[in-house]
Amino acid sequence: MTEIAQELNLKPLVIQLLINRGFETVEQIKKFLNPSDADLNDPFLMHDMQKAVEKIQAAIVAEKKIVVYGDYDADGITSTTLMYETLEQLGAEVEYYIPDRFKDGYGPNKDAYQRLIDGGAELIVTVDNGVSGIEAIQYANERHVDVIITDHHELPQKLPAAYAIVHPRYPGQDYPFGELAGVGVAFKLACALLDEVPQEMLDLVAIGTVADLVPLVSENRALVTFGLKMLQNTQRPGLIALYQVAGLTQSLINEENIGFGIAPRLNSLGRLKTGSIGVKLLTTLDEEKAQKIAQEVQQLNQKRQQLVEETTVAALTELESRRNNHLVNLVCHKGWHEGVLGIVASRLVEKTGRPSIVLSAFDNNAKGSGRSVVAFQLFDALDGHRDLMESFGGHHMACGLTVKLAKLDELQSILDQEAKKQKLDTIIKPSLKVDAKLSFNELDTELLTDLKKLAPYGNGNSKPVFAFSDYKVYGAKLIGQKKNHLKISLGIKGKKIDALAFSIGEKGNAIVADSGPLKFVGQLGQNVWQNKVRPQIIISDLLYQGLAVIDQRAKKLNQSMFTTKGTYVFFNEKLYYQVKDYLPASAGIIIGMNTPLGNLKTENLIFVDCPPSLEVFVAVLRKVPVALATLILYPYHPVYADGMPTRSDFAKTYRFVMTHPKIDIRNKLPQLAEYLAVKKELLIFMLQVFFEVGFVRMDNGLMTGCSSNQVVDLKEAPSYHSRQQLMEAEKLLITSKTDELKHWVLQHIIVEN
């Protein structure tokens, strides 16, 4: 390995990563690190390629109208743009059509085909769709309009009777690489038509390929590598405008920028409006028009983000309110936007670890999308129950369906049954693979440069995950508009680097309060700010083995204190009823020691008021495993500041009650307190003690002293004992410094595993 590292001038760590991925010789590594034109396969090896080229060429010569029939996602938009520009370059009379997600659905649609043919279409070329369009293509044949399919999706058992099917995995064909994206297949047809590799279109190929999550190996790796260079130097006004609204630096565009910046914006068009906006953006040569369209794209993407966030929160709230043990999540609500339900389903999978189906109700039906986990074949689970649904389609990890509202309970039951059949309840969540251990001493710009040579990263060539060691944590803070991302400052011997964990949740507060017990693994990346590039770590997974005590002690309560998710502890029942309307719908509630605590678990235990004693406080701490304790500790009946009455106070009060019968306590208490020169609260306490030991009796609000020859220890009175305990609790829990309080709590709490 050392010899290979020296020969290739690469860090041994990088060579080890390559060897672990199956590249064992110098020649194999060189070929992987340096994609070339030799990695691009002959397009005519693909099924029906010659036939498709000849048909299109004949249509161009005959001046027939050609329509490119695309799709509304990023792969479909770039495929449509690429094929449209290719045919236009060849002099064809060409138009494009992007189906409407809500009216036309995915793939060939008979009504859409009818409109296109009635409008003069004489040849239809599909991109990123077609192999499932039996009915629509049969209709086109009946109208004597040929259809050329270019597609990459799974081939059904029965194929449509198209004039040509250009597909990299067509049975019996010799094409060497079957994992092209839709835009990749369209690009191969463009190469065949133009009799060259159109370099200027590789920017489109890179976007569609990365966006469609196909494996970035072999030919795809070469296409994306070349395409990224084009994206960094593109002259397309639309892309330049899109970079600007997305806050991307053109010279630094990489596959991550596509995945997180460009593709989501293009995808939002079909989700909320129409994918044709994306084709207009990518094909326009007018800079002013490009900027205007890019602004519209940005607005739609922001709306998409808002809808996803709102719907995800609502869906999670719905799931939490049920408190059930379904193995598959099924949520439905009227008014949810159909275009974002697939993303919301993915978010639910991320949050809950369970397959999720999210539906929007309309009329008597519910329509939506499902997303799964690797261990659950979602399509197979529902494929045998098509009679239950109005429509259904999908694959292992995703599906789309429409079902009657009256059958939702039956659908949930079937999902749970199928999950048990597939033993989803016994499957252990797969662990994250760590590629190597990395000391902070090894982290330098040379290593980052070498790791970049392994890019583009993606499906089939994942970015390395490292376990980091030998560093010091300098601090942690929550960032982002909603303070839901964690930024940790790490370093060693003057070398500092930031580590970021996204969507950290409530655990972020714990880590900010005490980041010492934190362990994490992550990927090395870079942060670009004001054209300056700095290394950073993106945390892939973390383990927090400590407990955070969040000090939010307050002498007054306000509504904003009751927005945090968790379990709220009230020691005074009256206080609970005063604030219960402010509590989150999903909040857990503990009232004193009246709530059974045996099986209760929560991530955040929120103590609203001060307990009557430290003993009661510890009892809750020791029975409820938590990762975070939030201490508000509102003093509902404060006593510590007033203290305990002195021996002299007790004596003079005793003498007075013994010498003044029938004292009108109801009406004369303030005057009595003033006369005795003691606080009213202390007077009330002393009279309560006297009552408990038999020194006074009450009759219709009139108090009279009762003489006794027995020696009585006032400290044995229940009220005296309770006040002592409350004073002790207030002294520690309310008046102590944060560090002292935290140290005490940590000695008594059970940390959640």
UniProtKB/TrEMBL annotation:
Which ranges carry the Single-stranded-DNA-specific exonuclease RecJ C-terminal domain? 549-745
- The answer to whether the entry has keyword Hydrolase is yes
Domain DHHA1: where?
A: 328-420
The Swiss-Prot or TrEMBL record annotates one GO molecular function as:
nucleic acid binding
Q: Does the keyword Transit peptide apply?
A: no
Question: Which InterPro entries does the record cross-reference, listed alphabetically?
Answer: DDH_dom, DHH_sf, DHHA1_dom, RecJ, RecJ_C, RecJ_OB, SSDNA_exonuclease_RecJ
Provide the alphabetized UniProt keywords: Exonuclease, Hydrolase, Nuclease
Residue ranges of every copy of the DDH domain listed in the record: 65-209
Query: What Pfam family is a match, any one?
Result: RecJ_OB
What are the residue boundaries of the RecJ OB domain, all occurrences included? 434-541
Family label: Belongs to the RecJ family.
Which protein are we looking at?
A: Single-stranded-DNA-specific exonuclease RecJ
| Source species | Liquorilactobacillus capillatus DSM 19910
